[in-house]
Amino acid sequence: MRRDTREAGAPFAADDSTGLLRALIGDGRSLLVIVALCLLFSGMFALFLSVTGAFLPHDVAFLGMQPSELCDLHQCRIVHFIFHDRVSFGGTLMAIGTLYLWLVAFPLRLGEEWAWWTLLLSGTIGFLSFLAYLIYGYLDSWHAVGSAALFPIFVGGLWKTHRLLSVPRQSWRDILRLEVPIRLRTLAGFGRACMLFVGAGMSLAGSVIIILGSTVVFVPHDIVYMGFNAAELNGINPHLIPLIAHDRAGFGGGLASCGLIVLLIAWKARPARALWQALLVAGLTGFGCAIGVHYSMRYLSVSHLAPAWIGAAIYTVGIVCLFPGSVRLFPVSPKRTSLAAISKHS
Fold first, then answer.
1. How far apart are CA 249 and CA 68, in angstroms?
2. What is the DSSP letter of 164?
3. What are the sequence ranges of the domains in the chain?
4. How would you class 157 by CB atoms within 10 Å of its CB: exposed for 0-12, middle for 13-18, buried for 19 or more?
5. How far is CA 225 from CA 66, 72, 81, 106, 127, in A?
6. Exposed, middle or buried, 91 (CB in 10 Å: 0-12/13-18/19+)?
7. Rounded to whole angstroms, how far apart are CA atoms 296 and 14?
8. How many other CB atoms are found less than 10 A from the CB of residue 148?
9. Contact 43/94 with Cβ under 8 angstroms?
10. Average pLDDT for residues 297-314, to the nearest whole number?
């Protein structure tokens, strides 16, 4: 007879054979939380570097120039232009990280399949946009290492959390089905419509920026602001355009990914206090960085800023209409667990 050597009342788990790593990973959501937190940190780090006016070591090595040397040209506008893309990218990363945290903590926890597909599709856009950086021949080594480190964590998180889904074999087409009608005559319904419009606009704008960043790089307003055209920039330093193209493509990928998340959340999610808070923080960081940096660098072209201001205004209207008091205007299906109930008790 095998004797149980454990003492009565000993503080052991029910299954003592569970390994530490398996216990930490759990259902996989912890891995996705790590990805979200890394995106938040990366966004804040990009803002820190831009505020301090510092290039990364591999940027300096690639250019063969310090930021101070470029600042001697046309009131430092080339450097300011580089930082304006990086600040916008940083704000986008923080917005994505915030929305990822909400997706993992609420709908994915409940086995909502649309949340899993949102993570998969948005993450795919983000990781694939890295390839656009290579078109102009600049490999950002830090970004490459970071992406390579995050990718297996992200994939592992998706693989583990797939078991949480209430209908794990359902097609991605599930995200196309609208379960809660959008009633434009209600504040909350109109707010959702605003978010849908902004999310679609961000996705489209991000896709356009990826294409521009991988091809012509600049729009006319950029040339006017910097005071140099592409040929002149190439004459100053042949590595300048590849560096700027890299930053632009990165911002475009982040914006397209963030827009898709906002679009799918507005389409599928049930209003709740935590969701409203996540959308508010994402909007403040994303639009705040993208718009605010233009004023600090005096890049004030009205036609250039107009799309961002229009998007921010519509997003603000959506946030106001979706204030937690308006969630009562939405019917809650008795067949599914309400996210609002979880948010209320969390």
1. 25
2. G
3. 24-166+183-345
4. buried
5. 21, 15, 8, 44, 31
6. buried
7. 58
8. 11
9. yes
10. 92
- Phi and psi dihedrals of 323, rounded to 5? -50, 140
**pLDDT value at position 228?**
87
Q: Which residue spans within the chain are E strands per DSSP?
A: none
Residue 321 has pLDDT above 80, yes or no: yes
The phi, psi pair for 72, rounded to 5°, reads: -75, -10
Helix 273-296 to helix 302-321 angle (10° resolution) is: 160
Residues 302-329 as b/e (b if ≥16 CB within 10 A, e otherwise) read: eebbeebeebbebbebbbebbebebbeb
The Cα 191–Cα 194 span in angstroms is 5
Residue 50 CA to residue 37 CA, distance in Å, equals 20
Residue 190 structure tokens: 């109109």
Tokens of 274: 């935590």
DSSP 251: H
Provide the total of helices (H) and of strands (E) in the chain, helices listed first: 14, 0
Between CA 118 and CA 126 the distance in angstroms is 12
Q: Is the pLDDT of residue 219 over 80?
A: yes
**What percent of the chain shows pLDDT beyond 70?**
85
Residue 339: per-residue pLDDT: 43
Which comes out higher in pLDDT, residue 148 or 152?
Answer: 152
Tokens of 280: 């508010």
Half-sphere exposure of 73 (CA within 13 A, CB side): 19
Please report, rounded to a whole number, the percentage of residues in the chain having pLDDT higher than 90: 43
pLDDT single digits (tens) 18-62 = 677 677 777 889 999 999 999 999 999 999 988 888 888 888 888
Q: From residue 255, give the alpha-carbon distance in Å to each of 3, 182, 302, 308, 316.
A: 61, 25, 21, 12, 18
Q: Cα(68)–Cα(17) distance, rounded to whole angstroms?
A: 58
Contact 261, 289 (CB under 8 A): no
Q: For the chain, what is the mean pLDDT?
A: 84
Residues 6+ apart with CB under 8 A from 102: 274, 275, 278
| pLDDT tens digits, 185-215 | 888 899 999 999 999 999 999 999 888 877 7
